[in-house]
Amino acid sequence: MPSDPYDPPPSGTELTSLLELLCSTEAEFILVGGLAAVSQGAPIATFDIDIVPSTKGSNLRKLLDFLLNINARHRGRPGGQILRPTLNDLTAGGHCLLMTDHGPLDVLGSIEQGLGYDDLLEDSLQIQFRGHGLKVLKLEAMVRMKRSSSREKDQHYLPLLEETLRKSKKK
Amino acid sequence: MGLWYAGNMSAPKKGNPRQIDPDGDVPGTMDALVDTSLIDEMLRLSPEERLLQNDRMIRTIMELRDAFRSI
Q: Do residue A159 and residue B34 have CB atoms under 8 angstroms apart?
């Protein structure tokens, strides 16, 4: 589940710094969600990073090592209990909603009707970010997915994403 | 994901479907739903600049949150 927008991360969070660190691991992933929309021009503020990682080879191991290095722990544990992500968590294909020393990071096994990394690859584009090639889910794909979604939140943001897409095509 | 819209937006109401002009800007259509000038501003930036803009917005929101908590 997404993080609560009314419970923003600690002061000092810089998602660009976290994203840069993530890119420097050379783990394979696709940036999805709010930050992907922002990178393509949607005027929204988002408090976390959502990624869908590749499950191939040692990618998840590489990602896990990175997560543990940045003190990743599952968010929203009762009584402030600290629960670290494990390889099993990442391979299970569910949603790992994590807090790190650099801000919130959601590692999603799949999005929208079970679409994983390989399914999303053809709907992604690569942008240059601080010397790294960053794969981002295309706005077009986001709009398509939200159009077929019945979630109220998706319907809420749909007009904004549609208009951003339309204007970006005109550029 | 935790999202806040940086402008005035409301979801379309039933029986009042959105009108989207596929080719050009039509005053009074999408402007009623989203502040399209914010989109124009964002599209002028590079992808990295847009991400930095998000960081700035988060910082501002945090500062406001902390100020509110200190009352």
A: yes
- Write the pLDDT tens digit of every residue in A112-128: 989 999 999 999 999 99
**Prediction pTM value:** 0.84
Mean pLDDT rounded to a whole number for chain A: 92
Query: Cβ–Cβ of A40/B38 closer than 8 Å?
Result: no
Q: Please state, in angstroms and rounded to a whole number, the distance separating the CA atoms of residues A129 and A149.
A: 30
Among candidate residues A62, A69, A63, the one with its CA nearest the CA of residue A100: A69
Distance CA A55, CA A93 (A): 9
What is the Cα–Cα distance from A36 to A9, expressed in whole angstroms?
19
pLDDT at A8: 52
Q: Count contacts between A and B (CB, < 8 Å).
A: 145
A88 vs A109: CA distance, rounded Å? 12
Residue that wins the pLDDT comparison between B14 and A52: A52
CA–CA min distance A163, chain B (Å) = 7
